[in-house]
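Schema walk-through. Below, the input block comes first and the output block second. Nothing else is stored per chain. Lengths vary across the set, and this one has 257 residues.
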Amino acid sequence: MGHPCLWQFQGSHFCEKARWALDYKNISHTRRTLGSSYLLRAWWRTGRASLPVLVNGNLAIGGSSSIIAEAERLVSAPPLYPTHPAERERALSLESYFDTELGHQVRTAAFVAPLFHVPQFVARFAGMGLSRGAQNAFVAVAPLFARFYRWRHGIRETGEDAARTSVAQVLDRISSELGTNDYLVGRTFSVADLTASAFLGALLGAPEISYPMPEPLPDPIVRYRHELLLHPAAQWVLEMYRRHRGPSTEVSGPAAA
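--- output ---
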């Protein structure tokens, strides 16, 4: 059996969450960046029309949280789930909270203005890691793709303020949960810290991010980044990247079908 293969969008923060877990646990894996066919391919293998998907032999696991659970099963150390039952429950609860309250909201807060006014940027973002021909095709139909992206993720032009308010509330909760501690749960890095950080890393411009957003960034994203970086929790995210976002464990090999 070959290495497990991660089906991904390079720019997706949910995929960054899965990549970070695999890298953190030093699990050698291949990566396959999918284009417009991902909806059918992911649904066919997992029953979910979304990425990331981890394909390991005949097993296909959809969703970043399930992929982390599989990574924990495959390699126990270093752990992302705390060993103490109460701490483990709290870490998983925070992971679920960030999935629900931060994952979609970050996307909406960052991309409303580009979706409606700079669709070429969104097309370049979606085409990261694809062939030059596929990238050019995305850009050629940028306004149409932007409409699809808005529909796919339920993004409305009137939703930016609410999404940014939600992101700010999550940042405040991170600060509250941390208090004077370095980590959200106990004294070590866990799935809770990883999830919160992965969802914000690219938007904050963490130098260690696997696949940074394509330059030049639209002015609305630049301004929003500068605004977020004033928050103590954003600086904590950058510190988590510095401490724990080690090198990629991606290896070359045949892509899983």
